[in-house]
Each structure stands twice: as C-alpha cells, then as structure tokens.
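Quick review question:
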C-alpha cells in the first residue's frame, strides 16, 4: 500500500510500502491469588465471584472507551483505578499495572499517551481475560 505525504504547497511524495505492526501482549497470571480466593470462599462461591469480576472488567473496558470519547477524564481515572484493583485481586498483575497507567495518563494532558495506554489496556485485557479461563479449576 502506498500513501501520499503532502503538506502546504507540496504535491505530496509517494512513500514506500507501509508495514502494519502487530501488537501482541504477553501476560502472566498469578494463580496463587485465585487459589487463595478459592480456599477462602470455597469452590462455588469463588467461581461466582471470579465470574462476576471478569464480567465487570470486561464492562469497564467498554466504559473507558465511552468516557474517553466524551472527554470525561475524572470518570476514566476512577474506572481505570477500580479495574486495577479488581485485576490485582484476581491475580492479573499486568492488567492491574496498565489500568493504573491509564489512570495516571488521564490525569495529564498528553492525549497521545492516553490513547496509546488505553489501546494497550485493551490488548492486555483481552489476553488476560482469555488466559484466566485456561487456568485449571480451583
């Protein structure tokens, strides 16, 4: 795919091929956190808690997008912080860390950093949510 690069007073220059970079995230889960939760609550109760927490994380990812589109940085900060806390409790340290990064970026005025960090949160979130289901049952 060739793209045109133009500017004021220029006719544009054809650049070479554009390479799409694929972004992949490697995440590690902390199964000890889940094991502790299952030991403390019992299998049935822990399964219910984990299921609801995963649904909440998924919903908050979507909420963050809406808050970002509306420019509600205070809401983004609160939502991302709560995501971080939930992820930490479920043994998802990478997701917790990136959620805290989104919260921190929402406090600043660097829109590019916020968008990049939010995109990373989505990637890490998708991988983390998928990986937690691959863990052996408590």
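Suggested answer, residue by residue:
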């Amino acid at each position: 795919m060739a793209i045109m690069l133009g500017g004021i007073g220029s006719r544009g220059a054809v650049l070479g091929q554009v390479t799409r970079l694929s972004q992949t995230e490697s995440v590690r889960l902390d199964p000890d956190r889940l094991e502790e939760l299952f030991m403390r609550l019992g299998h049935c109760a822990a399964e219910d808690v984990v299921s609801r927490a995963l649904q909440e994380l998924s919903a908050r990812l979507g909420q963050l997008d809406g808050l970002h589109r509306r420019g509600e940085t205070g809401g983004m900060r609160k939502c991302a912080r709560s995501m971080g806390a939930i992820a930490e409790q479920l043994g998802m340290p990478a997701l917790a860390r990136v959620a805290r990064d989104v919260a921190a970026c929402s406090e600043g005025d660097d829109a590019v950093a916020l968008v990049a960090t939010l995109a990373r949160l989505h990637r890490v979130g998708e991988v983390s949510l998928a990986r937690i289901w691959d863990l052996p049952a408590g």
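Why it works: The radius of gyration is 19 Å. The first helix runs from residue 31 to 41.
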